[in-house]
Design brief:
Number of domains: 2
Keywords: Pyridoxal phosphate, Schiff base
Strand content: under 5%
Radius of gyration: 20 Å
Number of strands: 2
Number of helices: 5
Largest sheet: 2 strands, parallel
Enzyme class: lyase
Pathway: Cofactor biosynthesis; pyridoxal 5'-phosphate biosynthesis
Structural class: mainly alpha
Helix content: 40-55%
Organism: Oryza sativa subsp. japonica (Rice)
Family: Belongs to the PdxS/SNZ family.
Length: 113
Amino acid sequence: MGEIRALRNMDDDEVFAYAKRIAAPYDLVMQTKQLGRLPVVQFAAGGVTTPADAALMMQLGCDGVFVGSGIFKSGDPARRARAIVQAVTHCRLSRPSTPPPRRPRWRKKERKR
């Protein structure tokens, strides 16, 4: 992850030199710089049975979700599947164009004595 952070601070010439040094395609390295992560699709699978589950996975950074037999345990599987699709769609549409900032680590407040 440190190399990706360093990559984000490089100009185009430095990115080109870096891509050449690591023997990687320039386009791939540039895409990694722009995304702030490797351009690999991340899916969540297993235990995704509700729209809330799907939305949470998307908020955590997944590009999509797989649903399995869990949706068939609901009273109306077709309705549940549509709701999950809507949840994923709305999460994808609401994503910012840049990666979200890292969550700061807050210090625990000291108790006053």
